[in-house]
Each structure stands twice: as C-alpha cells, then as structure tokens.
Specification:
Pfam families: HTH_48, Transposase_1. One of its GO terms (molecular function) is nucleic acid binding. InterPro entries: Mos1_HTH (IPR041426), RNaseH_sf (IPR036397), Transposase-MT_Hybrid (IPR052709), Transposase_1 (IPR001888). This is Mos1 transposase HTH domain-containing protein. With about 350 residues, the protein is of the alpha/beta class. The chain has 2 domains: about 10-65 and about 70-115, no CATH class; about 130-170 and about 185-335, 2-Layer Sandwich (Nucleotidyltransferase, domain 5), CATH 3.30.420.10. Helix content is about 45%, strand content about 10%. The protein has 14 helices and 5 strands. The protein has helices at about 10-25, 30-40, 45-55, 75-85, 90-100, 105-115, 130-145, 220-235, 250-255, 255-265, 280-295, 300-315, 320-325, 330-335, and strands at about 155-165, 195-200, 205-210, 245, 270. A 5-stranded mixed β-sheet has the order 3-2-1-4-5, sandwiched between helices. A hairpin with a 2-residue loop joins strand 2 (about 195-200) and strand 3.
Length: about 350
Amino acid sequence: MNAAPIFVPDRLHIRHVILFLFLSNSKITEIEERMVEVYKDNAPQRQTISRWVHRFKNNDFSLAEKARSGRPVELDIDKLREVVESDPFQSIRELATVMGSTHSAVERGLGALGKVKKMGRWIPHKLSNFDLERRVDMSRHLLTHHPNFNWLNHLVTSDEKWVLYENHHRRAQWVDADKQPEDVVKQELHPKKILLSVWWSVHGVHYWELLPEGKTITADYYSSQLQKVKSKLKTSPLHGHRVHYLHDNARPHTAKTTKSLLATFHWTVLAHPPYSPDLAPSDYHLFSDMHRSLEGQDFKTKSEVEKWLKKYFDSKQPEFWRKGIESLPTKWQTVVDKGGHYV
C-alpha cells in the first residue's frame, strides 16, 4: 500500500482554513483542535489562530499580513525553503536573522519542510572539472574494455597501507546514568607504524610484505616487488592468462623504470584516474575492512604485525576477494552517471 502524501500547508492556506472554521461558528479551541487533528505538527499556534479570529470578528476578512511593530510576521515557508537550499550550511540562528523571524519559528519551519541537519562525508580531493572529465573518460573506457567482464578474473590490484602498532579508537560506552565512561588514551601525533604492500585478485592474496623500518617505496624498490609478484603468479590460477594490472598513480608506480619493467611482463596496465581511491579495490574494500578489524589491536613487534596480517588474510572467504573486484564495473558506471563525482 502506498503511503499517504505529506502535505505541508503554507501560511495562506492556514488563514483560509481559519476563516472557513470561523464562518462555521467554531470557537478558537475548536479551531485549534480541528487543525491539530488534520495538520498535526504543521498546525498553527493557538496565538496565531486567536489573532486571525480577532481580525475576522472586527469584519476584517483580508488574508494579507499587516505590518506590526515589535512583532515578527509569520514565517514564509516558501521563502525559508529558498534560503536554505541556496546555502544549506547556515545555522538556525543565521536563518532566523535572514528571515527576520525567531529561532523557534525557523526550527518549526525546517521541520515542516522535512529538513534535517547532516554532516557531509569527507572526500579525498576537491575535483576540478578536468579531474571530473578524466574520471568519466577512464571509467567509460574501462566499461568498454571488453564485451564482457570475464577479464576481471585475471585482474591483479595492489596498494600500500600504513599499519599502526597501537590502534586505539574512542567509541561511546554504555554506562549507568550516574557513572563516567572509562578514559581512552589519545593517539600519539606521530604513532609507530609500518608500511604494508599487498597484491591480490579474485583468487585472494598473491603476495604481501611489510617494508623494513625506515624504508620507503621508490621506483627501484617497487620494481623489485613486481618481480616477486610475477614469480608468485606462476604458481597461481592466473598462470597462463594475460594479467590485467590495476594500481594507482603514486610516483613509484608511474616512473619510467616501472613502466619499462611492466612492458616486459606483457601485462595490460589499466587506466586509473588521479585522486580516485573510490575506484581502487584495496582502498574501498580491503583496507576499509582491515581498518575495522585492526580496532583495539596493539602490537609490540613487526613479527606480531606479520602474524596478525597472515591470520587476517587467511580468514577471508573466496567471496570476499571476488566481491572487491567484481564491484568495479558498478563503480565505474556510477562515476559516469554522476559526471565524475565520487562514488
């Protein structure tokens, strides 16, 4: 069954109804009760009904608002909608100033309009028009890369992630009303961490490593990692198939030496637009899940981190890896549909 449509009366409609009920010989209390019954939270205040009934008793049947010194006029719902939608970041106090009304009146008006305050999500980058166009073009190209998406079974993707030794996260605690929650140690400004590199596909993880402390990814180091990955793939379900390779645009990934090495592998390197973690399976799927699993974990040594990661990777079912890769076409299509904006 379809829900009944929601009708939000404007101020002129309210005045017509008050006049109709007045002419029907209804008293102020009866008018109020009837309007609350019909309009619920959108019914006018009793003082508003009284003011209009007083005018009608004086044979003033004009429904236009008269200017009154020292009293704000009724809130113009249509004007409020226009003001809010022109700048949705305004506070109720700011809206009240613009509308020449009270805080409570604006608050009720926002409720009548169905407006609620929500925090915008964080996005990784403010995309320029050129960025948007590149994301659309590359996504459209990937959607038409082949007549079907069977090639996703041969796609390998890689990325890096910092793993913290101490993973404290402050969360709300259920406590008695007269009790205080336990204190949570604040994360250090420069916490101890180690860099994880991982290569995976629908078949699971093919190779991963933790970099030595103090080591950073350079083009030469990344190339040495790729050689190890290529060796691992020879004993994987991908052996004998043309590999499609997806990585981001970090400098070591796009360096001339890296490109030259990949050319000797005869892999198909897929286009990946800059500033697009929402199109990188490691970011939107693997690392987001890993981050949640790491909450509350404390490590003392690199070997403890390695032990935890091995257990984490081994715990994932085949469906987990396949879902992360096979969701790519949907994300590419969403980027095209949204004109390049983040998924």
